[in-house]
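Shipment paperwork, digital attachment
Item: protein structure file
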Amino acid sequence: MATHPLASRVRFILVEPAHPGNIGSAARAIKTMGFRDLRVVKPWVETYRTDEEAVAYATSSVDVLEASQMHGSLLEALEGVSFAWAMSGYDREFGPAIEPVREVSVKARALLEQAEGDIAFVFGCERSGLSNEDFMVCQGCAAIPADPESSSLNLSQAVQIMAYEMHMAMLSEATVDGLYDWQSRFEGEEPAGSVATEAFLEHFERAMIACGVLDPAKPKRFMPRMRRLFSRTQLTMPEIDLLRGVCSAILQPKQQRIGQKKQK
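Attachment content:
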């Protein structure tokens, strides 16, 4: 099976996996579907690449296991990613809206064709899934529509299903132009990745504190609600730059900034 030219821009990220065997199985799962980019964030066993169980479960995909990159945080693993989907089996009060994996895979292929940067699918720990903090770093949420009476999937099984759906979306010769209004958002503008979005949200929080909108002693749910609002908009880089300009003006009015660049 020939690897699709877009496959190199698809990342599968495992956050805090507990069992090395699942990492090996995940390596096998993505390689069978034509993908190679496996990232591991804060694994419980840092020597997982040479772990006996991981190597055994990877079988013919040991090369993907050995080449996998280990990161100290999810944001680090998302560097260079334009759009990330959190894999979650249930909806949450805050963060992006949940969508079935089949719909997500079609959108993901369209995004790869229309915008620069990688896309990523983010999987949580076997025991507890993704934390709310990691969940909200992602711009989208994908779920496998399993039987409600038995909806729990093994980590590597979930990786296999998402990899299969993405593989099938790439094999399809049918175009999706015009099916989704959201596609036009990416035309001519690079989508903001998780790193840029997090930097903006930190800037925005400082600006809201400075102008008195947000009381840091009593923050309530202000920032989680703002995160939910901005996640729905799916910000582009020009929009991030514009909003950060507004934040800068709040923190230091234009009159105070006049002449500063010349002095530097």
